[in-house]
Structure formats: C-alpha cells, structure tokens
Amino acid sequence: MPGLKREDETYGEPVTVEQIGAALAALGLYDGVNNTAEREAEAARLGGPDAYPVRMVNALLGAVQTEAMLADAVELDEEARHAAGPPPVELAAAERNGDLMPELAARLAAYGAG
After folding, report:
1. Interval 79-109: pLDDT, tens
2. Are residues 51 and 83 in the same domain?
3. Confidence (pTM)
4. Is the distance from CB of 70 to CB of 27 less than 8 angstroms?
5. Which of 38, 49, 60, 67 has the greatest number of beta carbons closer than 10 A?
C-alpha cells in the first residue's frame, strides 16, 4: 500500500503530542495553536503531563473510528471492498483479542497480495 509502512519496517519512536495535534488539525478537528504553553495549560487542567497525550490520542482514535464506520458503510462491489482493505469490524475483533498489530499486519499483507 503506497505511503504506509510495511510490516517489516520499524516504527521508531512514539508520536509526539505535537504530531497528534497536527493530525487532528489536518482533519479539521483541532483549532488550538499546538504550542508548549497551550499543551502545558491543558495538561495542568487535565491533572498532569501524562494526561494530555492520552487525551489527544483518544481524540484522534475517536475521529478515526468515526471515519472508519462511515467508510465501512459505503457500498462497494466485492473487488473494490477487497482492494480497500479489511473492514473496521474485523480489525476491532483483532484488537479485542489482544493481537491487533500481528493481526493487522497479516490482514494488510493478505489484502495487498490479493
């Protein structure tokens, strides 16, 4: 899949709150200034510096889950659906089983090969 890392590539360091804020802004879901002062103020409001990244990641995850549900509702023929990748419901099942990353990598590999 062009633009996405392959399963054999390492992912490196965890994303930063700056990157999460930028991702939310790119989706039109964040209108803050995404600077140190804003992050420190929000962290203090939420109860500490560890709470802010959790809040940001959860906001991004919620946005992506919503988009996935909307995308899954689009009517596609079988070939187009297969080319688009595994349905969010299948990925959610993998997450519940605690095998999200290996399961995701396997499913993406299967869809890419198909």
Report:
1. 887 777 766 556 555 555 555 556 555 655 5
2. no
3. 0.62
4. no
5. 60
